[in-house]
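Private note to self, pasted from the team thread so I don't lose it. Backbone tokens:
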């Protein structure tokens, strides 16, 4: 079955950077578009970014454009999210997503 395991979260000061990783298994990774979604405290799930199966096309929600970069390594079955210029409003649990499946998430906290 689909398994998605996120890592790389943590506590960072405003303006800082983090790189999230997602290890995927249980399906043929290179055939599927992948996404990152997040859930801030007390809020619903928010789509953040998506990448095509080959990695050539990427999409971002407006609030992270120019700060976040999604990428993937199909040889390693890995998905990444490079987050720069982090803001307190980026604080959330971040999930790797394939269709409706998600991992357990990784906490990102942006605070001074």
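Design output:
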């Amino acid at each position: 079955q689909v398994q998605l395991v996120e890592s790389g979260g943590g506590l960072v000061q405003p303006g800082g950077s983090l790189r999230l990783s997602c290890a995927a298994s249980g399906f043929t990774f290179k055939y599927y578009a992948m996404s990152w979604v997040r859930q801030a405290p007390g809020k619903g799930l928010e789509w953040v970014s998506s990448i095509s199966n080959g990695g050539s096309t990427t999409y971002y929600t407006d609030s992270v454009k120019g700060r976040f970069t999604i990428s993937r390594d199909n040889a390693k079955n890995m998905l990444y999210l490079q987050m720069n210029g982090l803001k307190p409003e980026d604080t959330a649990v971040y999930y790797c997503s394939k269709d409706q499946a998600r991992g357990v998430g990784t906490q990102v906290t942006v605070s001074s």
